[in-house]
Structure formats: structure tokens, C-alpha cells
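User: Please predict the structure of the protein below. I'd like the answer in C-alpha cell form so I can feed it into my own downstream comparison script.

Assistant: Understood. Taking the following sequence of 153 residues as input:
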Amino acid sequence: MLVKGTLRNVRYVTLTPESALALANVVLALHMAAALFIIFGLVTIPLGARLGWAFVHGFWWRLLHVAAMATVALQKLLGEMCFLTVWENRLLAVARHDPYHVPLIHTWGEQFIHVDLPMPFLVGFYTALWIYLIVLWFRVPPRLKPPAGLTRP
């Protein structure tokens, strides 16, 4: 439930702890989906190119994939935490959950998303993955239109 109020003629909404926890769960789910999307693309693009899967040449999902990986790499290069992690932690704070005493689903999700490795290693790793995707962009080029002979029903 949301609690509404006003402050100097400006309307604002304050989250109840229950609402904040529910939103933190949504942010965690989005974060895990983004991580799985990146992993899916890293595996599927080269495999699909080898096996002749036409969908790996789809322009828009490939562009989104490169952009997602670039966002992760850039955040690491800048030494910043992922914005989704920041949002989740802020929502957990509103829900009155210490980041180290959170519901089990958050613990599992965070263990899946965050690896406890030195930052210089992560910077190099994520940057190398992003460069790998750029190389794949040219080796397995995306197309705006499906290849000849491939029609949609």
C-alpha cells in the first residue's frame, strides 16, 4: 500500500515497508532476467551461427544485447555498482531490511548475480565479454530484414 502526502504543495508518495519489499522483489527479478538475457546471448549467438539458426541475426535483440553488456562493462569500468542493485538496496532499506538480513530469495538472487571477485578482474572480464560481443557483431552480423526465403506466417 502507498501512503500519499503533500510537502509544500508538492504531492509525494511514500512506500510502506510491504510495498517496498514487493518492489525490491520486482527489481531483483528484472536484474536476474537481465543477467540471464546476457548469458543466453553469449552462448546462443555463436552456437546459433554454427547451427544455422536465423534468429541469432535479429537486429533489435542483438542491439539490446550489446547495449546491456556495454552497460555492465561501463559500470564496472567506472567502479560503480549496478543501478538495479542500488535500487534494490534502497527499497530493502525502506522495507526495513538490512542488506545483510534480507529474505532468502534476495540472498539467492544476489549470489547468482554478484560474484565475489576482485574489481580489477571483473572490469577486465566484463570488458572482454563486451569486446567479444562486438567481434560477434561482425562475425555473425545482425540483419534488419529476414534472409530471403524466410517469411513470417
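That's the full C-alpha cell string. Strands lie at 2-7, 10-15.
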